[in-house]
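Worked example (supplementary).
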Amino acid sequence: MDAVPLHAVGYYPEGAGPFPLVLIVHGNHDPAEFSYPGYDYLTSHLATHGFIAVSVEEDFLNGSVSGEMDARGIVLLRHLQLFREWNRTPGHPLYGKIQMSRIGLAGHSRGGEGVAVAWEFNTTKHNPDDPNHDFNFHIRALYAIAPVDGQLGVMFPQYVTPRNVDYFVMHGSHDGDVSNFQGHPIYDRALPVDEETTGEKGLLFVQGANHGQWNEIWAPGGDPFPISYSTTPLISIADQQQIGLLFLTAWFRWTLQGRGCYRLMAAGEIEFDSFPADIVLTRQYQNAMRTWLNHYEEDDNPATASFAGGVNAADGLAVYQEQAMDSGGQVGRFVGETDGLILAWNAGAPTYTITLPQREAPLDANMLALRIGQLYESTDVYNVFGALQDFSVALVVNGVTLDAVRVGDYRELPSQCHVQLLGGYETSMSVLETIRIPLEDFNGGAAVDPNAVEQVVFTFDQNSSGLLGVDEIQFTVF
Ligand SMILES: [Ca+2]
Ligand SMILES: [Ca+2]
Ligand SMILES: [Ca+2]
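After joint prediction of all chains, the assembly is encoded as:
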């Protein structure tokens, strides 16, 4: 393909600006039906909140095609070149109105990987002979809606790893197209655990959401592989779009406009009345200020902690194993790209204790965070379907055990829903929830010196049995 049209439709606010710029791009669909009008509900809403927001047409890349993922990203960069030119052109309606230092990209399905590809090619040459590769845009934030992963060709890394950029991914349990939550591995790779990086990342998993309802054009046609069985109903188009609108807007208001209350929403610490009721939302969040106690990537020995010299110990657990939480078919039906800990109990009040050595360098932290959740079981063995899971956490500081807190006071840990696509293809999966506990909560509201913490103790004392996945236990700053 030698040339493509540059065509996008959207809105800009009244006023002098300058305003941050958000591009939204669709994914693969029947090329005879325009997909780009399907995000009008998002672009119009963004414009009322101070963004220039457009939906980019890439219908000419659609159909029974493969190997086009590089083009999906490059077309977005070509659009940014055009906006840069208009912003510099006296007399153009957008002259001086675009805040080119604050750009966000959102994409759905193949477009969801396309925004990561655009971010990659923004600074990495996709073609050394391209005379027009003068991108280097300030792409600050990405938002992927039910993205694919790994469709980028062989000339460049097949899998994009977002670094030094804010990345958010949203997916539905009832996705009848990208049914294995391919954005989860991207979330796991983003801000790599073993690298110094900047940026933040968030994840939203919506029980009952499907693939197409986030696009107004795709929604009525249903997904290619509809749900045949689920313990959770498919949510309405209106509710699914409301959830997408709230989180996408919030992400860009935080990352491009610096509105801190929306960071709380991304981090799962605040809810609004505009959230549709009775829909189970699972959320993850992480920023780059992390001191790892356990990310479980260092080996496969549950006794060794990721914190150098740290030791993990279990007492009374029926299952206790460090393992891959990927799509390899282990217990839990995971879809990520990470290692974690699987634990279960069915008697007493067992414990999981992390013991830290004396620190050589002081660490900066005001929170303890981890991701944890009930694992999917086809029939109940340890968890009780429909019941919340819960447990306690305590710190030992200078030989004294401080107040225990109950994680249920921070976030609920609900059951994973069961889903089968038409034909009986099972797509149930376990998605963990980020829990963030201010250190002062362990000490009656008084500050806790993170350098003095000797042990973190989890006690499974709230339910008589349970099966949980655990990962990314960290001290962090918020
Ligand atoms: Ca491991
Ligand atoms: Ca280990
Ligand atoms: Ca991990």
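Two points are worth noting when inspecting this output. Residues 295-297, 338-340, 471-472 surround calcium ion (ligand 3) (CB under 6 Å). The longest helix spans residues 69-87.
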